[in-house]
Amino acid sequence: MSDLNLKDFSLLYPSAAAQQAHLSGRGRPNIDDFTLEELGLTEVFPLKNSNLSEFITADPAVIRYREAVFGDLLAHEEISKTIGHLLPVLYDIMELRRLDADSGETSDYLSSMTEIELYISSIDILYRGICQAKSDYQSEPFRQLSAQIAKLVESDYYAELNRKLEELTSRVREIRSVTVGVNLDAQLRPKDAGVLAINAEPFRSGDTLQKILHLNMKNDEYTCIAELVPFNRKQTENQKTALALAFNSAINDVYRQSLRSWKKIVQTYVLENTDFLLNLLPEFEFLLKGTNLMRALQIKGNRLTVPEIAPAEQHAFRATALYNPVVALKVDDPIVTNDLIFDEKAAIYVLTGPNRGGKSVITCAMGLAVVMAQLGLLVPAESAVISPADAIFTHFPTGADDTIDKGRLGEECARLGEIFSGITDKSLVLLDESLSSTGSYEASYIAAEVLAGLSHAGCRCIFSTHLHELAGEIDEINARGGAPIDTLVAGIEEEGKRSFLIYRRKPDGKSYARDIAARYGLTYDSIIQKINGNTNSKEA
Q1: Phi, psi at 522, each rounded to 5°
Q2: In the chain, domain spans
Q3: Partners of 343 in the β-ladder
Q4: Angle ∠(226,232,237) on CA atoms, nearest 5
Q5: pLDDT tens-place values along the chain, 540 residues long
Q6: 3-state class of 48 per DSSP?
Q7: Phi, psi torsion values for 148, nearest 5 degrees
Q8: Among the four 3, 14, 73, 470, which has the fewest Cβ within 10 Å?
Q9: 458, exposed or middle or buried, with CB in 10 Å at 0-12, 13-18, 19+?
Q10: CA-closest candidate to residue 287, choices 81, 454, 37
Q11: Residue 169 belongs to what H/E stretch?
Q12: pTM of the model
């Protein structure tokens, strides 16, 4: 009997120990699905049977293992197509097992045969799509999977399994009707009933037209003289289901002897290896959806790179030509890219600039790059060096327009306070327009205290804010000691046009005030023009 020898096989983890460590939560980053939703990743990377956060790792060995797997997937499109064909078959096996569990008929003959057919179908899909392609896979897991599937399909045992399946299923496929016997009591009421025979040809209805068509006017054992159950449109689905279950049960009884040997085949080999494939189902789905995301970005002409994974202790993040992949998939124009570098002068950035100038986009872009790297994907940049984060904390706007609302300010402060309960120097904090629910004086004071706390924690952070005056307090905050803070500015071209370029420099608050004044027609020239226009219209 052949064996896949893949009991501990995984497409995402280089060893059983690495997988067990991840599943047990040891060293697993604190990055939840709410954070991924705020970053926009779940929108472009949807999973049906798992939560995306379950796959995030901080283990460099796991990341490198996955990078090689994704490299094969991007280089060999046949793998993605194969997984796309395989997933529906595995879903069918899962549904079949669920129905069996609900019915309690774990030894059902027909469902057992169906599962074997689905199992063989899944193996054949893998063989045709991965083994027969004769591709030169670079990753160890795809080389191993290809070799083991080929070994199985080309074995004598697999040929015997197919022959046995065809032999047993042909007995069911040949069934065209059953002969039913019903005993009646003295009042002609049904007393008991059972199947007398299983036939290889269907019964005939027995009506006049049917007899004429068959040129046979005499009754025989296959001619019906009266319908027992009317199969018509008036019959409910429950009635049809009940009848089908009754006959399936009878067939199982007839083939119970065959089932004993069949069940042994199922339990000793096939179910074990079907379990192997079902256990890989979340991995298959993750790899397919991740590959689809990266391929969609490449089709639109966007660059992707394999990041260099730096030790967590280095707190590294250096990306050239970084962009937001969620935005890139939504726009038709070429995406604006930016360099973003954390170094000895900047572990924390205060990012200021005009509304809709790209502050939120670049803030999320950094978070997405870190998450994609820790999923094992290529990252949206020309080059990148990234230290894994042990946690990502976000604080993004929850309401619509900015208003002075003390209740909302309390809620914002509470959410900010929660961040400090779990933060370490290896964490990433992304704050977008935090403290926008209060006046600038109160907001600047609280923001300065928050920045000082983040600096003390030593984490990486982008604080995207409308509080331009906050930049003037950075020297004072840096004087307290801790991780260094620097400033970024979202640029503006002439006439207030947004460039979406991010510059590492100190902000000029007046330029943004001028931009806002011009946007709403509140410059002196605009106001005079309106006044003169009103005067002229009245005189006319």
Answers
A1: -110, 15
A2: 16-31+51-173+258-297, 303-507, 510-540
A3: 346
A4: 120
A5: 445 566 778 999 999 999 999 999 887 999 999 999 999 999 999 998 899 999 999 999 999 999 999 999 999 999 999 999 999 999 998 888 787 666 655 445 566 677 778 888 999 999 999 998 777 899 999 999 999 899 888 888 788 778 877 777 776 666 777 787 888 888 878 788 777 777 777 877 655 555 555 555 455 666 666 666 655 556 677 766 666 666 667 666 666 655 566 666 655 566 666 778 888 999 999 999 999 999 999 999 999 999 999 999 999 999 999 999 999 999 988 899 999 999 999 999 999 887 777 889 999 999 999 999 999 999 999 999 999 999 999 988 764 444 444 457 777 788 888 888 889 999 999 999 877 655 667 778 888 888 999 999 999 999 998 887 788 889 999 998 899 999 998 876 655 556 688 999 887 655 555 666 666 676 667 777 777 766 555 555
A6: coil
A7: -70, -40
A8: 3
A9: middle
A10: 81
A11: helix 156-173
A12: 0.79
Query: For residue 428, which phi and psi values (nearest 5 degrees)?
Result: -120, 130
Task: Assign domain 303-507 to a CATH class.
Answer: alpha beta
**Tokens in use for 425?**
């120097």
